[in-house]
# Entry
Amino acid sequence: MNAADLWQRYRSHLCSAPSLDLTLDISRMSFDAAFLERMEPAMQRAYRAMDALEKGAIANPDEQRMVGHYWLRDPERAPNPEIAKEIRDSVANIQAFAADIHSGKIKPPQAARFTQFLSIGIGGSALGPEFVADALHQPGRDRLKPHFIDNTDPDGMARTLAELDDKLNETLVLVISKSGGTPEPHNGMTVAAAAFKAAGLAFAPQAVAVTMFGSHLDKQAVGEKWLARFPMFDWVGGRTSELSAVGLVPGALQGIDVNAMLAGAAACDEVTRVPDTRRNPAALLALMWYHATGGKGQKDMVVLPYKDRLLLFSRYLQQLVMESLGKRLDLDGKRVDQGISVYGNKGSTDQHAYVQQLRDGVNNFFITFIRVLESGGTPVEVQPGVGAGDYLHGFLLGTRAALFDNDRQSLTITVRRVEARTIGILIALFERAVGFYGTLVNVNAYHQPGVEAGKKAAAVVLELQAKVAKALSSTPHTAVQIAESIGAIDATETVYLLLEHLAANGRAKLTHAADPGGSTFATM
# Structure
């Protein structure tokens, strides 16, 4: 295709959303001229399904609940006045709480004011807040400095708590868990509370729960008289919870304009609610995913934002896209093994990391470039008439062209700048694209049976570990012998791995043999 044809294709297929300051360029995707027309009946079904979702249809039959993350930024669309009031009250209470923290009206027992916050969560309770905190961080101007514990790794928790060592007395702790029973945030809370106790501080007066009212965590917060509680709603899933209390509490505490985020998402919802596919960027995103992957996940999506502030966006999208679409069964119960794998970096780091493979290696992907027009920073010429931002923009356009020249497909999303409103727009854009795509491939995008299966399997392993530890004695035994003694001979490999872990952490004595089957374990 020559330059004139490419220019014409760009003009014909550019989707512009002026109210969002956003464009979507699909011209470097290799769909044929009739593709959009062929897909229009399916897309109209997707619009109807989305309309039913927004009106309160039971979209998660596994849990018999509605899916209402769109109501978070437009409460008037909620299916009843009670839910609308819950949303409005939650936002107002979050903002009032943050204002009282910032003013010093609410302060810690042993400091003049809160200066830090530690957010403890996992998955949707961490990825969104971390992405937004990094994207909208203003050095020296954040009202509270954010810190995160997002795993049950003791070393990782220790590193984060070490950063707060002399500031624990002025640190607000957010524990974010919908059920209150998820192991990772529970473990993080327990470790943080121990650090407070070791520092001679009471945990409860500096602790905030973000959870479903009535959950185990909520009851604990009430019983121990925690500083505050904010609600998570049963109709909001973790991966779509950033614009609920999950993301608004840490965002407001950091000093982010959460109203602008909500307004940006609401504005994007309005644009992507219109059943005119060529004018709907979320619909076109979903259709391009369908085209690129054959509707069967045949290619991965590489997300390349050419902006440092969007570095964590690909991690956020991994959960949103992969947890929503990675499904073994479709809505009819047929095995389909659906999904789209997502990975990413940032420009121009990608240029020196994996663009070589993207251009010349296996063609098993398509790219989503995110282009930010305003360079930001300090305008310094690195060459006559050329700034560092010009280089960054040049690398994006050059990489896009080099990939296209070698038959690599790409989309380009363009926004003017990275600010709170833009972040809200991007979150809403991909949320709706995921919903549309789920309908196109006939999967339930709003449940996650694989995640639950993993949690159950982990619980079984921990039960086995307790039996293994109890079976240890001063007499050395092999893993096979210990497995036999606890009636777990079919799980001998797992028993060995558990024993190896216990030994590495000073809870068992290991005598190595060349063959793991000959290694023995005993009490210390």
